[in-house]
């Protein structure tokens, strides 16, 4: 399910970036793109099937076993759910007014990683027939923990400071996701093929960073020329545990 | 500029620096509880003597005794507190911290510090607030409103029982409140230490107090840093009081709620729907 959703969300993010770029004054030089692929070397941890039998209302929503999403890999050693973003060199621009949607569906978080700007609105939905408690384990921002029984309205939130925040549900311990709170509007989440693309970047020198919840962070310097297309790949070293 | 004017402006500049330098920490650290004003400087020696053994010199819960203690001492550098009168994610009020020092935490190694004077305790609260930058410049946290308690009738208790099922409290606390629900064994706090859900059959006290209003506050604000979420978004005040009344029936003390409940059970036990997975949506 996530595999279908993630490209959609990625596409939405790109649309957002493109819209932001078209708002810029016409006199500014044409925007460039940084794209690439996130891969691993070594042996990554295996995705394991999740036993949801303790929550029949969720187990019945899945025909095949749901796999853990801490490390999701694809063909050609690709790494999914890496957040790739501009960590230095761009103008943050105004905080987007659109609200980031985060769903609890089938006792899973959809998307696995939700990316948002500091101060951007976030809406958390419970689409299940069971109570969840949504517990983002923030360290830099304030940590809160709220219950959300089925059929209740979405929880509204936002974060002031940039941080990667692990999200868990204490009732269903297998539920695990992330909020990526960034100070840039130029970001992407790698798809199952490991590919990402950051469009709408004015020419200039940037620091581009890839973050993965298990593999850590890598950064590189990239120069974008007028209408240019730069390529930056990331290779993470994977350990099986 | 005449020498005299220069001297005056130098003095006023010094004054401004002193004022600015002195004001910021004062605003962050000064503490007001019940007519008393706490001072961090006065709290420090008390902290070093009475608290640092567990909570650590730096307030980071790394005191020399901490490794032997379960549950772990509070880490003041994170400024995440279980017992608050404020919504989840907010700092506690000065009164909340003062109450914690005075009350201690039942079933933990934190004793009630009633041997210290009220002034000592409020000074300690001031000092505790210096360990995290979250207090600096933060607006005074506002407690949630707790409306007057509704009558603890059998109808209220039964409605509370329905809330216990609807909100799935039993998933952690167990169908009979024994702390043995299906998720209980998997629970960890925000520092990944194992943590037990409250077992209602162990007595009538809670970590965050022992009155009905304390119980109301506990589940409405949640215990931050633990798996216990806040329920204030999902419960109206009268529903919350219903839940308080039902929870009291699970404790082995002759509370008015428990006596009402037991009298009713004599003749109506067969009418009860089960609590737990068989209970469905009530």
Mean pLDDT of chain B: 90
Number of strands of chain B: 2
Rg of chain A, Å, rounded: 18 Å
Strand content of chain A: 35-45%
Distance separating the two termini of chain B: 83 Å
Number of strands of chain A: 19
Main beta-sheet annotation of chain A: 5 strands, mixed
CATH class of the largest domain in chain B: Mainly Alpha
The greatest interface here is: A-B, 23 and 29 residues
Architecture overview:
The complex is a heterodimer of chains A (241) and B (282). Chain A is mainly beta. Chain A has a single domain (2-24, 31-238), classed as Immunoglobulin-like, CATH 2.60.40.420. Helices cover 10% and strands 41% of the residues of chain A. Chain A has a five-stranded mixed β-sheet with strand order 7-13-12-9-10, with no helix packed on it. In chain A, strands 1, 15, 18 and 19 form a four-stranded mixed β-sheet that branches. Chain A is globular, with a radius of gyration of 18 Å. Residues 1-26 of chain A have low confidence and may be disordered. In chain B, a hairpin with a 2-residue loop joins strand 1 (31-33) and strand 2. In chain B, 41% of the residues lie in helices and 2% in strands. Chain B contains ten helices and two strands, in the order H-E-E-H-H-H-H-H-H-H-H-H. In chain B, 38% of the residues are buried. At the A-B interface, strand 9 and strand 10 of A face loops of B.
Summarize this entry quickly:
The complex is a heterodimer of chains A (241) and B (282). Chain A has 241 residues and is mostly beta strands. Chain A contains 2 helices and 19 strands.
What order do the helices and strands come in, and which of them pair?
The complex is a heterodimer of chains A (241) and B (282).
Chain A: H1 2-22, E1 32-42, H2 56-59, E2 73-74, E3 78-79, E4 83-88, E5 100-105, E6 108-110, E7 113-117, E8 122-126, E9 132-136, E10 146-148, E11 155-157, E12 163-168, E13 176-182, E14 187-189, E15 195-201, E16 204-212, E17 216-224, E18 229-231, E19 234-238
Parallel strand pairs in A: 1-18, 1-19, 5-8, 7-13
Antiparallel strand pairs in A: 1-15, 2-3, 4-14, 4-16, 5-6, 8-11, 9-10, 9-12, 12-13, 16-17
Chain B: H1 3-29, E1 31-33, E2 36-38, H2 40-50, H3 52-55, H4 94-103, H5 118-128, H6 154-166, H7 170-173, H8 212-221, H9 237-249, H10 256-268
Helix pairs in contact in B: 2-5, 4-5, 6-9, 8-9, 9-10
């Amino acid at each position: 399910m996530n595999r279908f959703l993630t490209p959609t969300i990625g596409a939405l993010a790109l649309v957002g970036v493109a819209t932001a770029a078209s708002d810029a004054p016409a006199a500014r030089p044409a925007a460039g793109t940084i794209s690439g692929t996130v891969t691993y070397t070594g042996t990554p941890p295996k995705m394991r099937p999740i036993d949801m039998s303790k929550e029949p209302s969720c187990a019945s929503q899945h025909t095949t076993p749901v796999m853990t999403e801490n490390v999701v890999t694809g063909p050609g050693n690709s790494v999914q759910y890496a957040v790739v973003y501009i960590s230095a060199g761009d103008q943050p621009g105004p905080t987007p007014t659109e609200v980031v949607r985060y769903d609890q569906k089938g006792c899973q978080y959809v998307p696995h990683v939700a990316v948002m700007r500091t101060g951007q609105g976030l809406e958390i939905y419970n689409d299940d027939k069971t109570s969840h408690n949504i517990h983002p384990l923030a360290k830099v921002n304030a940590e809160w923990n709220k219950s959300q029984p089925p059929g209740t309205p979405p929880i509204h939130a936002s974060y002031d400071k940039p941080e990667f925040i692990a999200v868990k549900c204490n009732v269903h311990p297998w539920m695990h996701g992330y909020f990526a709170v960034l100070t840039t509007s130029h970001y992407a989440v790698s798809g199952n093929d490991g590919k990402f693309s950051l469009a709408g970047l004015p020419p200039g020198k940037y620091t581009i960073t890839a973050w993965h919840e298990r593999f850590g962070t890598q950064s590189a310097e990239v120069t974008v020329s007028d209408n240019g297309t730069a390529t930056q790949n990331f290779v993470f070293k994977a350990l099986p545990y | 500029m005449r020498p005299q004017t220069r001297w005056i402006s130098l003095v006023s500049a010094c004054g401004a620096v002193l004022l600015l330098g002195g004001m910021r920490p004062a605003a962050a650290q000064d503490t007001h509880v019940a007519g008393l004003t706490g001072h961090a400087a006065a709290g420090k020696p008390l902290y070093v003597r009475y608290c640092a053994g567990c909570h650590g010199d730096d307030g980071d819960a790394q005191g020399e005794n901490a490794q032997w203690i379960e549950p772990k001492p509070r880490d003041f550098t994170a400024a995440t507190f279980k017992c608050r009168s404020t919504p989840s994610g907010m700092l506690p009020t000065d009164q909340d911290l003062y109450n914690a020092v005075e009350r201690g935490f039942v079933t933990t190694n934190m004793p009630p510090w009633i041997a210290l004077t009220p002034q000592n305790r409020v000074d300690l609260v001031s000092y505790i607030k210096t360990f995290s930058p979250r207090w600096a410049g933060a607006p005074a946290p506002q407690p949630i409103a707790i409306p007057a308690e509704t009558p603890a009738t059998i109808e209220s208790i039964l409605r509370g029982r329905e809330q216990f099922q609807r909100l799935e409290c039993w998933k952690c606390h167990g169908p009979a409140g024994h702390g043995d629900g299906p998720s209980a064994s998997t629970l960890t706090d925000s520092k990944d230490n194992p943590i037990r859900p409250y077992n209602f059959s162990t007595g009538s006290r809670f970590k965050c107090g022992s009155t009905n209003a304390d119980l109301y506050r506990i589940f409405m604000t949640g215990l931050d840093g633990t798996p216990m979420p806040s329920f204030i978004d999902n419960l109206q005040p009268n529903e919350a009081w219903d839940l308080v009344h039902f929870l009291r029936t699970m404790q082995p003390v002759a509370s008015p709620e428990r006596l009402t409940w037991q009298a009713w059970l004599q003749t109506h036990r067969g009418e009860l729907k089960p609590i737990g997975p068989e209970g469905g949506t009530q």
